[in-house]
Amino acid sequence: MLFQVYGDNAVWQWIGWILVFCCLIGANELARRTKTGGIIAFLVVPAILTVYFVTIYVAAAAGADWALNNPTYVHMTSWFHYAKLYAATAGCIGFMALKYRWGKIGKSDWFKCFPFVIVAINILIAVVSDFESAFRAWGTTWVSTEGVTLMGGWHNVFNGVAGIINIACMTGWFGIYVSKKKDDMLWPDMTWVFIVAYDLWNFCYTYNCLPTHSWYCGLALLLAPTVANFFWNKGGWIQNRANTLAIWCMFAQVFPMFQDYSVFSTQSVNNPNVNLTVSLIALVANVLALGYILVRAKKQGVNPWIQEVFKGTKDYEQAIARAA
């Protein structure tokens, strides 16, 4: 098994997973369908949380007990969590600018490459984290600032390389559209080929570097936007992904006890052989995805990053049919 989902808390762990999955889908729908929902979710709430985070760290530096014992201060101290939260939120704001054509930026053609840039940054943040474990504890373990035991080795290297390849699997950087209902930013060329490769890579990242959180952020969080894309929001996967990631990061940063010390807490098996297997699967999937993209691009005689390569496929055509 990948996770320690057995024993007295097994029922609670499954209930927790279902709750996270369903709530993320619901929160994404509220945030994407109206301008007001998006502004509240990705401008108002993050602004309030920023004041909260700064207040905690200033008070902790001054020696205030309430801050030193605050769950966010004690359990969510890694640079990665803050980097991911604000990078994902920046993505959501940029996507809304494109979707609602805010200002000169939202109306400009050059800004259509923003989704590629922000997704690449988010991937690189995780790649650096994977390589950090390999550097800190090659063939052994190290304890993060949050007290989590992490292993370092080839699994980090393989998955770090898979992440870099995954960036190259994003095609049609300027092929960004707005849906007819103006409720979605669409990237039709981001088909199942990229989505599956990304999900496998990102799951492996969480499994390697967030073993106490992967049950939720490696499965429920990844499946929520993927399910939405495949069933009712075709072409909107990257928007779904950014929205659910930002919302989850906000929740996890303020309420770490849900994952870390409650009946819902779920550990991975933290076995180096399992980590290595998962990393190899992610690497092979991304190599195959990039290979397929390059072959398809060569047949069409197009640049796969500047031009769209999946025209004519079912996924692409269903997505582009939704565009205004």
TrEMBL record:
The chain crosses the membrane at residues 12-31, 38-59, 79-98, 110-128, 157-178, 185-201, 213-232, 244-264, 276-295. Signal peptide: none annotated. Keywords: Membrane, Transmembrane, Transmembrane helix. InterPro entries: DUF5692. It comes from the Bacteria. The keyword Transmembrane applies. It holds the Pfam family DUF5692. The keyword Transmembrane helix applies. This is Uncharacterized protein.
